[in-house]
Amino acid sequence: MRIQVSVETGDSGTVITDLYRWLRQDDELRRHAEVRLLPARQTGGFMNAVEIIELVVGQGVAVANFVVAYAVWRQGRAATAPVTITVGEVSVTVTDGSEEAIRRIVDLLQSESDR
């Protein structure tokens, strides 16, 4: 399964780099998933570029590790830009590490892994 994590650039340009470094430092996640930072791409507007982290996971344990790593990363940060997680054609945007946000991520990943 390919999971893409994106943040619109602007003041949030460092957010995606910070999250990418966090995910790369997670030994359990790296053991079961390939984590890479893709080049920014334009999304329509002149200044509207999106940076993307792509995770390629093959097992449910990697999906669980990603969700845990994201939750811990969010809890350790002050308010940051919204993060969009995309699998296939389905996306969810979350703005924090609340239980509701984590549940939305899990629901997305479960529904896509059931396909």
How would you describe this structure to a colleague?
The chain has one domain: 2-Layer Sandwich (Alpha-Beta Plaits), CATH 3.30.70. The chain is built from four helices and five strands. The chain has 115 residues and is α+β, with helices and mostly antiparallel strands. The longest helix is centred in the middle third of the chain and has 16 residues, at 60-75. It has helices at residues 13-25, 27-32, 60-75, 99-113, and strands at 2-8, 33-42, 49-57, 83-87, 90-94. It starts with a strand and ends with a helix. It has a five-stranded antiparallel beta sheet. Helix content is 43%, strand content 31%.
Task: Produce the secondary structure layout.
Blueprint: E1 2-8, H1 13-25, H2 27-32, E2 33-42, E3 49-57, H3 60-75, E4 83-87, E5 90-94, H4 99-113
Antiparallel strand pairs: 1-3, 1-4, 2-3, 4-5
